[in-house]
Amino acid sequence: LIVADEWDVRLFRYAPAKGKPIRKRSLDQDALLRAVAAEPDDDNPRLAYADWLADNDQPERGEFIRLQCELARRLREGKLFAGEEREQELLAKHGDVWQAEYPVIRGVTWSGFWRGFPGVTVPNAGTLARNAVAIWDAAPVESVVIQKLDQKNAFSLAKCAQLGRVRVLEVRSFSSFLPAGTTPLAALLDSPHLSGLWWLAVLGNSRLGLAAMELLARSEALH
Asked: Could you tell me which of 19, 18, 98, 21 has the C-alpha nearest to residue 58?
């Protein structure tokens, strides 16, 4: 929307309110989404949902899910992905609107997409643990960014069964140079629910000491 007068020109961009779905889900759509949640590592339910979207006036969203499923397969196989430009084009065009369809959860930001569905960013591991049921009831989340990892919250998250749904995990603020600094990382990596993880990044303001690097190298969760 452009509003102009003799003194000024202003441009307004519309985005749907967070937590208010654009479309009411049909029974067929709900059934397909339940199938995606029930078989998180199987592409077939996601591709079936992509076909349904294409047949129900959302062809670009269906295309996006197919592209991201292919991207994940290629990454795991160490192969190049030819559809990255188109995937990024669809993400730039629709990403904000697609994320806005998911509910508002205090402390949780819907961010990025993985295999066609949104990931989350949380300020700390405790926020993820406290809101795990609400998050995974809303979406088949596989990609998680934790802004800060500390000892208390790491132990809380390690007990969280929903951690088993995470495939891509990023930690942005963690230091193992302090006394007992490896304890939070050890608690997280020792979780029995982390067996499905296949990619871990420790980035941002993180600083890893030798003990933490050895811990990562020995972790069964990353092998």
From this structure: 98
CB 195 within 8 A of CB 163: no
Q: pTM, whole model, 2 decimals?
A: 0.82
Contact between 198 and 223 under an 8 Å Cβ cutoff? The reply is no
pLDDT of residue 14 exceeding 50 = no
As a whole number of angstroms, the distance between CA 135 and CA 164 comes to 13
Give the rounded distance of the alpha carbon of 61 from its chain centre.
17
SS3 label, residue 53: helix
CA nearest to 37, candidates 24, 46, 29: 46
Burial of 30 (0-12, 13-18, 19+ CB in 10 A): exposed
Beta strands of the chain (E only): which ranges?
Answer: 2-4, 9-11, 109-114, 117-124, 143-148, 168-171, 199-202
Lookup: tokens for 136: 């995974």
220 pLDDT band (50/70/90 cuts)? confident
Identify the band that residue 89 occupies on the pLDDT scale cut at 50, 70 and 90: very high
User: Cβ contacts of residue 162 below 8 Å, gap of 6+?
Assistant: 132, 133, 135, 136, 193
